[in-house]
Design goal:
Length: about 190
């Protein structure tokens, strides 16, 4: 007899009898997720919407909370800050920060590149001499649309290839079940 037991030795749960309740709950949750996506749309990150990406390094460990607040005071779109490491970024630990800022919305006839360069210059000014700018890149909306498109195609191809494998390896009926479960998992 073990000293600590989480699951009793004799359990009698009627999983098959409760399947219709589980199907109903699952269907309701699936419907809620589909309605939520239709209502709010996807919450796409900077990689899919375009924006400015900067890698900065400090001579000492960075407290990311106050730095995030400083970047947010600039009034640009959503900003994301995260530590990254490797090589000289590990000396001292947490001294390199990846800053992602969504682009300014430009009006028709204005140049997006000029707006992006304003974002880069404003961040450089805000950071001051404390930080060394290691890399700056701007992801345009065309690149981000291609990335989103390619991601959707890759996901659909992965679902098809898994279904084909399951259908060939086992039986075709299981392939249909695999497609249904993968579509369910993706949504």
């Amino acid at each position: 007899m073990p000293l600590l037991r989480f699951i009793p030795e004799s359990t009698h749960v009627d999983f098959v009898g409760l399947r219709y309740i589980a199907f109903a709950i699952d269907g309701i949750l699936l419907l809620i997720s589909i309605v939520s996506i239709a209502w709010h749309g996807f919450n796409l990150g900077i990689d899919f919407t375009g924006g400015v990406l900067m890698e900065v390094k400090s001579a000492q460990t960075v407290d990311i909370g106050p730095l995030r607040e400083e970047i947010n005071t600039l009034g640009f779109g959503e900003s994301q800050l995260q530590f990254y490491g490797g090589g000289e970024c590990d000396r001292p630990l947490n001294s390199c920060v990846l800053i992602r800022v969504q682009p300014e919305q430009v009006k028709a006839g204005q140049d997006q590149n000029v707006a992006d360069q304003r974002v880069v210059q404003a961040i450089k000014t805000k950071l001051g001499n404390e930080f060394t700018i290691r890399n700056t890149s701007v992801v345009g909306p065309k690149v981000s649309q291609e990335l989103f498109h390619d991601g959707v195609i890759a996901t659909l191809l992965a679902i098809c290839m898994i279904a084909i494998y399951v259908a060939v390896r086992f039986e075709w009926q299981y392939g249909i079940g695999a497609i249904a479960s993968l579509i369910h998992d993706v949504s």
